[in-house]
Amino acid sequence: MVMKFKGNELIRDEHFRVIKKEVRQTKNGADFVLLELGNKDGRIEARIWDNNINQCQVEIGKVIEVNGKSQEYNGTVSLVINSCQIVNSEEIDNYRDESPSLVFDIECVGKKFEELDEKEQDYLVNNLEKNTEDKEEAKKKTGLYSIFGKVCAIAGWDINNEKGKVLIVSDKDIEAENKDYEYVICKDEKELLEKWWEMSKDYEKFVTYNGDNFDFPYLMIRSGINRVKVPFEIKTWNNENRFLDLQKKIKQNNRGFKLEMLCKAFGISNPKEEGVDGSEVTNLYNDKEFKKIADYVARDVISTYELYKIWRKFMSGEL
């Protein structure tokens, strides 16, 4: 969400939280400071030119009081700061970005191995799952791959409103076990994807666990197969302000952890405590246990949300 300044406005004693700070050079070799600032209205880019650097106090994670002006270039408004100083503020949350944000997770169901043709079977077992020593186990993993599986459920949790919604392919009505969730029945995967992308247009930030590698690519490929339009460009690899993958933020030795293990370590709700995990979704779907799938993916998103709150408050380095 971008702040609604107009071009050529005077900025007097405005307070912002410093999100990013980078020293750059102009073509003439003069230093300038490029900032990203935020408050509850959104985020905005700002610059401090070389002749004003000495008049400015700036530190990432601090709240600064700004004087300067706004400028507009090619339809984008930014700030030019003449002077600024760090101000004491114990209420730093008052200056956090409240862009519409969604935590989400998907569940997928795979074809039976016997439904694949000979080439597909060979490709699954000897290429995609070549590192799985137990070949019978490899045959059960069709749901992990968007060319052999499909999306059967998507859960989303609105961070600002603390309300959730589960889209689920089902042939019967089901009720949510969590009163803060709404369950929406879809007749097939295509309808589910159409409703998901329509819902997603209301959000400017997405929080996932392993969404960069799995959820977003899976959704895009399945959307293409179903001829469902993806309404916005997804660049997870260079836009963490919009696409935040917690697995990339919480890792060690360049390896991510299983969400279940982090839930235990951080003392938050574990989505698998009810006896269901992702590996069982295909069997549950084939047995028409749609409510168990919906309840599970809803719990998964709540756990991700709880982890996100801990990361944001204690681990993000913003304070």
Number of helices: 8
Q: Count the strands?
A: 13
Number of discrete domains = 2
Shape: elongated
> Averaging pLDDT over every residue, what do you get?
90
Characterize the quaternary organization of these chains: single chain
Quick one: CATH class of the largest domain?
Answer: Alpha Beta
CATH architecture of the largest domain: 2-Layer Sandwich
Content-based structural category: alpha/beta
> Helix and strand string, N-terminal first?
EEEEEEHHEEEHEHEHEEHHH
The helical percent reads: 25-40%
Provide the descriptors you would attach to this structure in a database record.
319 residues; OB fold (Dihydrolipoamide Acetyltransferase, E2P); Nucleotidyltransferase, domain 5; six-stranded mixed β-sheet; five-stranded mixed β-barrel; 8 helices; 13 strands; 31% strand
